[in-house]
Amino acid sequence: MIDRRIELLEDEGVVFECNVDVGRQLRLKDLWRRHDALVVAIGSRVPRQIEVPGAGLAGVHPAMDYLYGRNRWVARQEGRPARDTGAEISAAGKRVVVVGGGDTGMDCVSNAIREGAADVLLLDVYPELPASGRDANTPWPLPPKRTPSTYALEEGGHREWAAQVTEIIGRDGRVAGVHGRRVEGTSSRDLRAVPGSEFDHEADLVLVAIGFNHPEHEGLIEALALDLDGRGNVKAPVYATRTEAIFACGDARIGQSLVVTAIAEGRRCARVVDRFLGGTGVARPVSAEAMFAFEDGDPHSLRHQAETAGTVTVGDAFWSGPRDAETER
Ligand SMILES: Cc1cc2nc3c(=O)[nH]c(=O)nc-3n(C[C@H](O)[C@H](O)[C@H](O)COP(=O)(O)OP(=O)(O)OC[C@H]3O[C@@H](n4cnc5c(N)ncnc54)[C@H](O)[C@@H]3O)c2cc1C
């Protein structure tokens, strides 16, 4: 499916150049020589760190360090090119604890199971979702931030809800287990420890999947001297940054999100870039209201449904999620 989609895009004139780190390997002045506009869509890859004693022990890794290695292993098995990342993290035969119950945590669970982990426990700090699948922070029509079911746990492993890791226990410099407690509450700001609920769990490998902070600032963003918003994302309220001809969209603009959101971001950004290229040559500011005006009247549009429901005020905050939304992914 992906190959087919790439072919379609190539037929439309899109040129893909792989293995190029823009801002580090490819100099910006070389880009500008060939192009009139630049869209920064580099995702949100800086992982949130777990700030508990023992976080620096051997055997404790950010989830993506593990998942990048697994993806490359799969690529090699299928005869596709894959970068050599040196010593890859393996879960085979190990007792694995995954901290964080978002999609990234789930991918860790399934990969560890497929590798033949001895035991996989996923600890989710949030309570089990109600039958509706929504918690109080995301009333309809806001997209739910969490899902009650997952493909990963169907393959094996076990999830515990409302479980917060407070320490990673070590032996001779290596991880030996996690220490935690039960908590109540639905957001990181209102979590309360349940007295007398502390627990220990043995582990040889701890994978930390508690979300992402923002895009990498070193490299491209610094080279372009782009403004950042309060969360460290590229500041581009209506896709255009303050720098002429430079735009941003996707997770780099709104923080770690969903594939569907990133696709919608890309489409809206493309319209803005298109106007820029076909207009006076100067990026003109477009208000959020004007951006979504094309959806007015369409009874199937998210905007229309949201306004009909009367539960949210449509604006930038609506499209990027509530300001205080948890971004565990
Ligand atoms: C482990 C994991 C699991 C997920 N699971 C789900 C899921 O099940 N469902 C869902 O809807 N969403 C999921 N998401 C979220 C989803 O993948 C993202 O929201 C979405 O991919 C964001 O799209 P994007 O185009 O903005 O950024 P990305 O998809 O992150 O793409 C950014 C691209 O830019 C490249 N790049 C970065 N810097 C540079 C540079 N300097 N030069 C050149 N290239 C660069 C990166 O290599 C990457 O290919 C998951 C995310 C993760 C990390």
From TrEMBL:
Pfam families: Pyr_redox_2. Transmembrane segments: none annotated. InterPro entries: FAD/NAD-bd_sf, FAD/NAD-binding_dom, Glutamate_Synthase. Its EC number is 1.4.1.13. Gene3D superfamilies: FAD/NAD(P)-binding domain. GO terms for molecular function: glutamate synthase (NADPH) activity. Keywords: Oxidoreductase. Residues 35-266 form the FAD/NAD(P)-binding domain. The keyword Oxidoreductase applies. PANTHER family: FAD_NAD(P)-BINDING DOMAIN-CONTAINING PROTEIN (PTHR43100:SF3), GLUTAMATE SYNTHASE [NADPH] SMALL CHAIN (PTHR43100). This is Glutamate synthase [NADPH] small chain. It comes from uncultured Thermomicrobiales bacterium.
